[in-house]
Amino acid sequence: MNNSLKTVLAVVLLALVALLVNSLVSRPPTKTALVESLLVNGSFDGSVEPWRTHSSWPVAWTDAEGDGSLQVTATSDRNAAGRGVLSQCVNLVAGQRFDLGGRFKQDERSTQAGGGRLRITWFDRQGCAGSGSIDTAFASPGQLPGWQELRVDTVTAPAFAKSARVSVTQSIDGAGDYIGYWDDLYLRPAGGQ
Q: 104 near 180, Cβ under 8 Å?
C-alpha cells in the first residue's frame, strides 16, 4: 500500500472515530428520562396508592390484564350516568406546558356501552386548594376493542396555577355494566422536556 492511500484511510478512520465520539457525547437523554411523569404510580404497580378514589361504583386495582391497572365497573339499573372515579393532585409552576395521557381498555364482559374522560383542573393554591378551573382539553376513549392510547398534547398551566388535579371519569349509556381499565396515566413536561 502506498503512503497516499494510507494517509487517506487514516483520515477516514479518524473522521469515523470523531463522529462516533461526538454522537456518544451529544446523545439526548434516554426515552425513560424524557417521559418522567409528575404523577405518582400512574401505572398502578401493585396498588392504586396514592391516587384518591371517589366513586360509589367499584374501583379496584387488578392484574387481570397482565400488569397492574385500575378497574372501574360503572353500573346502572336504567339511566345513563357518569362519575368522577379517580384523581391525583400535583404542585407545579404557572406557565409550564404539559402532555397528559394514559391508556384505556373496555372489558368485553361489559353489557352496556359507556365511556370515560381524562382531564386536568388547575388550582390557584398548592395542594389543589382554592379556586379551580377545568381545562377544556381532555381525552376520551372510543368504543374500540383492546387498549387505546389517550393523549392530550400540550396543555399550559394558566398564569394563576400553583397545582393541578388529574381526574378520570367513567360513564355508562344505560342499564347494565360498563367495565373499563385505566393504566399508564401521565402528566409530563410537553415534548419530554
A: yes
What is the model's pTM? 0.78
How far apart CA 39 and CA 51 sit, in angstroms, is: 9
| Spatial CA neighbour of 177 closest among 114, 85, 86, 103 | 114
Q: What Å distances lie between residue 116 and 68, 140, 150, 154, 178, CA to CA? A: 19, 6, 11, 20, 10
Give start and end residues of each alpha helix (H) in the chain: 3-25, 31-34
Is residue 135 predicted with pLDDT exceeding 80? yes
Instruction: Give dist(CA 61, CA 49) in Å, integer.
Output: 9
Q: What is the CATH T-level fold of the domain 30-192, as seen in this structure?
A: Jelly Rolls (2.60.120)
d(CA 123, CA 142): 29
Cell numbers standing for residue 63: 392484574
